[in-house]
Specification:
The complex is a heterodimer of chains A (116) and B (115). With 116 residues, chain A is mainly beta. Chain A has 1 helix and 11 strands. The longest helix of chain A has 4 residues, at 97-100. Chain A is globular. Chain B is 0% helix and 50% strand. In chain B, a hairpin with a 7-residue loop joins strand 10 (86-94) and strand 11. The chains are: A mainly beta (116), B mainly beta (115).
Amino acid sequence: NAGVTQTPKFRVLKTGQSMTLLCAQDMNHEYMYWYRQDPGMGLRLIHYSVGEGTTAKGEVPDGYNVSRLKKQNFLLGLESAAPSQTSVYFCASSYSIRDRGSYEQYFGPGTRLTVT
Amino acid sequence: GDSVTQMEGPVTLSEEAFLTINCTYTATGYPSLFWYVQYPGEGLQLLLKATKADDKGSNKGFEATYRKETTSFHLEKGSVQVSDSAVYFCALSDRGNTGFQKLVFGTGTRLLVSP
C-alpha cells in the first residue's frame, strides 16, 4: 500500500514551458486535491475532484488545469509556466463524507517546482 | 470565509520542555478541526483531529481540545523530543457554498527542538 505518490519529485522549468504533475493513490479514495505551498501562506487549494471525470476550481486555479480520467489518478498541468508558479505542490486524497462520515486527507510527498 | 490563525514561528525549545502552539479559527457552522505535521522533505500527515466541541484529539503524546467558546484548538505536548522538530499546521473543514467540504489551513508553525 503506497498511499499517495507524486511524480516528479523535483523539476526546473523555463518561463513558458509546460509540464504535467502526476498524482496516484491506491486507497480507492473518491476525492482528490492539488495544493501549493508557499512560505508564510500555508497550503492553498488549486483544484479538486469529487470523482472520476469531475473537477472543480479551488482557491488559486489560474494558470493550472487538471484531469481525473481514472479514479486513482489526478493530473495537474501547467500550460505556460511563470515564475509565480515556483512552489511546492502537494496532492492529497480522501474518502467522501458519505462513505466514512469523517474528513481527513492523505498527502503525497510533494513536487518542488522552480520556474526560471 | 472561514479562516485559521496560528502563532508565528519558529518555536524553539529544549528537549523535554512543554509545548503549546496556539490555533484559533473563524467559522460559520460547526467545523471539524485538525492538526497536521510536516517533517522535513515530506508531505503532511494527520496528527490528530476533533469533530465537535469539547472533543479532545490525541496522538503520539500530543493533545488538542476543541474549544467552541474561545474558538481555539491549541496543540500541546508535555515533553518534546528532537524528533518532534517539524512544521505543524492547524486546519478546519469548511463546507462552503457548494456543500463540498475542503480544508482551510493555517500558515504553519515551525518547531525546533534542541538536545
